[in-house]
Amino acid sequence: MSNEAATAPAAGTAPAPPAPEPIPHGLGASLPPADARAKTEGTFPYAADLWAEGLLWAAVLRSPHPHARIVSVDTTHAREMPGVRAVVTHEDVPGTALHGRGRADRPVFASEVVRHHGEPIAAVAADHPDTARMAAAAVIVEYEVLDPVTDPEQAFEAEPLHPDGNLIRHIPLRHGDPEAVGEIVAEGLYRIGRQDPAPIGAEAGLAVPRPDGGVELYLASTDPHTDRDTAAAAFGLAPEQVKIVVTGVPGATADREDQGFQLPLGLLALKTGCPVKLTATREESFLGHAHRHPTLLRYRHHADAEGRLVKVEAQILLDAGAYADTSSEALAAAVAFACGPYVVPNAFIEGWAVRTNNPPSGHVRGEGAMQVCAAYEAQMDKIAKKLGLDPAEVRMRNVLATGDVLPTGQTVTCPAPVAELLQAVRDFPLPALPKDTPEDEWLLPGGPEGAGEPGAVRRGVGYGIGMVHMLGAEGADEVSTATVKVQDGVATVLCAAVETGQGFTTLARQIVQETLGIDEVRVAPVDTDQPPAGAGCRGRHTWVSGGAVERAAKMVRTQLLQPLAHQFGMSTELLQIADGKITSYDGVLSTTVTEALDGKELWATAQCRPHPTEPLDESGQGDAFVGMAFCAIRAVVDVDIELGSVRVVELAVAQDVGRVLNPAQLATRIEAGVTQGVGIALTENLRTPRGLIRHPDLTGYALPTSLDTPDIRIVKLVEERDVVAPFGAKAVSAVPVVASPAAVASAVRAATGRSVNRLPIRPQAAVVT
Q1: Percentage of the chain with pLDDT > 70?
Q2: Which of 107, 454, 751, 756 has its CA 20 to 30 A from that of 299?
Q3: How far apart are CA 560 and CA 571, in angstroms?
Q4: Which stretches of 262-331 are assigned E, i.e. beta strand?
Q5: What pLDDT score was predicted for residue 439?
Q6: How does DSSP classify residue 673?
Q7: Residue 325's closest CA among 101, 106, 534, 536?
Q8: Torsions phi, psi of 17, nearest 5?
């Protein structure tokens, strides 16, 4: 009898169901996010969903002027309205009146001078949200309107807008021979507009007073311990009297919550003795939180006859808006990476960050690096045009590699496979040209209803190579603490690293699964009773917090294996854990993790702190960065040269990732970053004529949608592990944002022959007459 006959099911019986597919497990697997189902079903608890008994509602009165002197503030009418429980102004701030993420220079409430449109003046708590809004509007403020300073170039000569002056930081970078010249000189003036991080979901929070006179704040904070310390200082309380509980973060590509939003909330709860909730409108979010720095850049590149760079000269001016925030850090990145991932023997860069009466600027993904990338890549296109060379070839002749020296004097010790990345996108097949037929009209720039003619469409191919630094810079103490506990066969991770959409909670589960062989791993909610883990930006939680989780898990692993190793007279290094089993090198020992645990409760706490960095000195020199990541993108665009409309056809991406920890998650992060870059290149521009935010909503501010997203081809992921990083992995989200706007602009330049020196690209810049 054949095997087929022997195993065939009897007549009338159903075939056995297929075996279930194995659940993804450990590092390198595409483990799905633990909160994916809750978010999909709408049951995930966001801050806007919170409720408490006896809840009051808050509203904030904001300045309608970008610059004004406050003559008087009268809260009488607001206080007398039925249902109003409290009104607070600068006079009701019991502690430190100033706050700020990078520098404490911003008042909780404006008292004498208003410095930007939307600055908080007063806040109200009432028993209904409509009452709170009406009461805030009833606060009478008498202003003496002043002329705003909105041009950052005028800030150098204008009267001081702040007691600290208008200049926040100046970095003069000097590297090499100032007399060096090249046979080819390319010059350019570039302007980068203001982008809003446009966080998904409403900015919201709940403040609950505590019996000890303290307060608990439930917020979608991305840096809870910093926010706690800021709040405690403003409230006149000890840090242990303020607790921040991180609620579900809808997603963040910058500082998720405006501290000027959090502080009035806590003050009202302390004053009323009641829980107080505040949900910001989209307009209030545009007015309150920080935006990307608008930047003016002047460049002069010198190159030899072969296209190799000899010297780069640049002036970089960041518009910080009314307050410093993180402008000093953004300027350091802009100056340090002003020449891009290219070998430049001589560089002379002047960088400034100045205050104006424009909306505040701060941390937004790729800050500083994105602005200069758009400029230096335009300069590379100009050099290629002057020499009659292929733009990719000019870049290839200058690319940076491991062991090269940055203009800051820092040697690149991390993997820097820039040539490999560029070659990968250069060699990737180009997309097919659209057919000139009515059936394919949807391919035209402008979409299905576009008014253009196929004969006016020109295709262009361009390149963008970006670089970013990971973690903090210039001496920032990057440290994170994590605890791993195992009880009843379940592992729990306690770490104050906030899940902002970057996938930390998934990574933490994967680390513990791989290290301990335990399938069920939970990540505890975040609050400030846990040790600090720092802000969720620049890939720091993958590196620092992930490193802390790994170290804690390895300590628990040792606790688990030591009794077995002692029993069999061997070291723990001779035992391995895989697929839930513990085995020895010689096969003598073989047991399951569950049997080894045998009801034990194990736990360990560990820290991860990367190697130190140093501030840039008076010449812009210093080892300021822990590590760097690189990305090359080739953009293909179609441009209607009569209408100036642009359609991004395809973006081919090659990226330096160190190690792929979660393939699906990594691809999603890259695609999201590229899409964000397309918005920066073509649509996103927060207009602020004379300092007033025009159209502070998602109708006037055009984010790219799924219809605007081009084909994104991830053609190569270079897995050259960074030996100083846990797992060898690098940050992946920011560098596509940096490179893609430059690549799109380069492609439009190739299609039109125009200089394209401004982002976002305006239609008139793509019209060919």
Answers
A1: 94
A2: 751
A3: 12
A4: 276-279, 295-303, 309-319
A5: 54
A6: H
A7: 101
A8: -65, 150
Instruction: Kindly list the distances between the CA atom of residue 766 and the CA atoms of 54, 433, 628, 724, 750, in Å, as whole numbers in the listed order.
Output: 58, 20, 34, 45, 10
The answer to whether 718 and 655 have CB atoms below 8 angstroms apart is: yes
Which amino acid, 465? I
Which pLDDT tens digit goes with each residue over 289-336?
A: 889 999 999 999 999 999 999 999 999 999 999 999 999 999 999 999
Euclidean distance between CA atoms 541 and 669, whole angstroms: 15
Specify the amino acid at residue 741: P
For residues 691-699, average pLDDT: 90
Cα separations (Å) of 564 from 514, 557, 595?
Answer: 19, 11, 11
Six token digits for residue 96: 């430190």
Of the chain, the percentage scoring pLDDT greater than 90 comes to 65
- The tokens for 664 are 């699906």
* Max CA pair span of the chain: 102
At residue 381, what are phi and psi to the nearest 5 degrees? -65, -40
Cβ contacts of residue 437 below 8 Å, gap of 6+?
none
CA separation for the pair 294, 37 (Å, rounded): 38
Helix (H) or strand (E) holding 294: none
Those residues whose C-beta lies under 8 Å from the C-beta of residue 372, and which sit 6 or more positions away, are 295, 297, 314, 316, 334, 337, 338, 340
Please enumerate in sequence order all residues whose Cβ is within 8 A of that of 385, keeping only pairs 6 or more positions apart, or say none.
none
Report pLDDT digits (tens) over 725-743. Answer: 888 888 888 999 999 999 9
Sheet holding 167-175, edge to edge: 167-175, 346-354, 309-319, 295-303, 184-192, 758-759
Name which of 355, 367, 298 is nearest 169 in CA terms: 355
Do residues 205 and 60 lie in contact, with contact meaning Cβ atoms separated by under 8 Å? no
Token pair for residue 125?
Answer: 């708590």
Quick one: pLDDT band at residue 642, thresholds 50, 70, 90?
Answer: very high
Scan for tokens 């190793």, then name that residue.
Answer: 565
